[in-house]
Write a structure and sequence with these properties.
This protein is mainly α and 248 residues long. It is 77% helix and 0% strand. It contains nine helices and no strands.
Length: 248
């Protein structure tokens, strides 16, 4: 049962990242509003499609399932503390995504920026800035690890079930997707560290806010276009894990 929840969660996450890549590509290549990036815009895009409510409902179910699977896994004994902690963090993250998707499905509005609200509260405490900085370091390290996985190319899916040419194609797509998403996550962690140093919660960015910051960087929309393609590739990587991951 856990395998079913995790694999359907990969399917939902893959669809979400493909949608994020599409809306970011609109900004880069079609002059769409910079606000049309990130998770809320991706959910809105899915909802606009034919059978959009059913599609988004499936995303909510998939995200809720993988959140539950990770939460239960974090409570099981016999596993290392680091693995249980990682599963707990993943469970919370997937749960927040599932709630965001449910709000979009029920037309409840986007709600507050939870990252910025949490940072704003923490930065008013004496012990808050070091904690916020630590979170930024952890997030940034996670992004760098993902970049490293993309560089090394040791991907956790079976290669013996597909023709060699298709395996090479999927590996290349997956590695580019990991590099692109890892870069966004590493930048997100950097912004959190900057917020802790400046005691300014406005410097904490969401995923979409990080993409908007890239838009104003030296390479501008060209770089965002490359990242947009990478996010689509990351979605394909998640679908590949759904079908071919050895152990979930």
């Amino acid at each position: 049962m856990r395998s079913f929840f995790v694999r359907t969660g990969f399917a939902a996450l893959g669809l979400l990242y493909v949608a994020m890549g599409v809306v970011s590509a609109r900004v880069a290549f079609m002059g769409a509003s910079e606000k049309g990036q990130g998770v809320p815009a991706a959910l809105a895009l899915l909802l606009e499609q034919r059978y959009g409510p059913w599609l988004l409902g499936a995303v909510v179910a998939g995200l809720a399932g993988i959140a539950l699977a990770n939460a239960i896994g974090s409570l099981r004994r016999g596993r290392g503390g680091a693995e249980r902690f990682l599963q707990a963090v993943n469970g919370v993250g997937y749960g927040i995504l599932a709630w965001s998707a449910a709000r979009a499905l029920l037309n409840l509005g986007r709600g507050a920026n939870l990252q910025r609200a949490g940072a704003s509260w923490l930065l008013t405490r004496s012990w808050g800035p070091p904690l916020v900085a630590l979170v930024g370091v952890i997030v940034g390290a996670g992004g760098l690890l993902e970049i490293g996985l993309g560089v090394r190319g040791k991907l956790p899916f079976r290669r013996d079930l597909l023709p060699r040419g298709l395996v090479k194609l999927l590996s290349g797509i997956s590695r580019f997707g990991l590099l692109s998403r890892g870069l966004v996550i590493a930048a997100l962690g950097f912004f959190v560290i900057q917020a802790a140093r400046a005691l300014d919660p406005k410097q904490v960015h969401s995923f979409g806010g990080t993409l908007r910051a890239f838009t104003h960087g030296p390479l501008g929309t060209i770089f965002v276009g490359v990242i947009a393609l990478g996010l689509v590739c990351y979605g394909v990587y998640l679908w590949t894990l759904m079908l071919l991951k050895r152990r979930v």
